[in-house]
């Protein structure tokens, strides 16, 4: 059949320029080392056999078995797909959607509960709206607990509600105004000055520049701490995030980490120690403020960028109390608040360098430096550019939820308790059905209607999640990104050091592998 090669590419042994053969080699080598042990090999073989005979549950829609996802093999199911480089996994999900459209497909992976891949926005909307039916569940928590603990990324129920309420309080309209109109311009000006000093041939990693901006911003405003993107914590968290992501792809992760997990364990200790440091700093701030208020000898809280109404971590202390849980909550928000925005900006400028005509339109719209009173509505094309970059390079490319009770999706698919629902935002954002025949193209104009940015439903454009779990930092991310694009895009010309297609590295989010090395020149045509 003509369609067969479309998904056979996922198992091809030919050289793939968009993935890392060396990384795949090391992963496979570790697995082979494990399997060379007769006890491990026997245990794996027995587990696979038991799973194939007893664990394969056929899910149904209107009484008929669901179609299997492409490349479902006897015994191993789709397991071979998931141990490959993530870029191949992205293409696999795109292939599933393009072969079968919005049809719900059954996926079978050893160690994974019975599961489905959903692509229909109606099904995803149902998942978003029914928070009480779909939760993170044991499958996700078993793999992400070491890194995220009780933080909002893992939390369900009352603990999730408490952390979300604290986040809503911090991201009030008043605080957001201070955040984006006072703190952001200050740190952005520092980065502009740094880039100007590098003009004339020096190579600069733009991803590191954007990461530094968002790290400084979150550290100052949310935690009253000076943080930097290149510190020990950031490097440790980056590694731990990649290792945690691999747990979702490798069914033997819990065995492999016994033998090869020393680096992960070390980095997790660094991350947790930093979380404890954040809490201790917040407690000292609180005690110092109390002494100042009562006339004691404390010096009080240092200036928080023009009197922001309470830091995020202080809200956690008020709402949660338990220091370990507060540390988990703080680390979760730090990751969500800085990493995803910095990565999204990296992909945006990668696309702008490949599409100079789009950059010219951004510059034409900006015309003058962005001042304190400019709003997103004043820069609709620049906002559309950011949305289009998010569509093609979503910061959270995969999501998994687990049904905590029996339920039926709108298309009639019955999900028993414990089954998992997987959707690939990367693939859904490239759906021809949803986005048209040019879904693979970078075309910001698709977001504009009558000169304004059009809204798409969260189920069609699930970049910011949806329903009760809609991303709290959506507005902050949009305002920050549009401001940075307007200033950086108008002030500088960036020239990539290479012209190869850039891909993401293994992570729970979408960092660009190798960063984005560029040469920087001032835009001589720009006259503020």
From TrEMBL:
The keyword Iron applies. SUPFAM superfamilies: Cytochrome P450 (SSF48264). Heme binds at residue 471. PROSITE patterns: CYTOCHROME_P450 (PS00086). Its cofactor is heme. GO terms for biological process: lipid metabolic process. The keyword Metal-binding applies. It comes from the Eukaryota. PANTHER family: CYTOCHROME P450 (PTHR24296). Belongs to the cytochrome P450 family. This is Cytochrome P450. It comes from Verticillium longisporum (Verticillium dahliae var. longisporum).
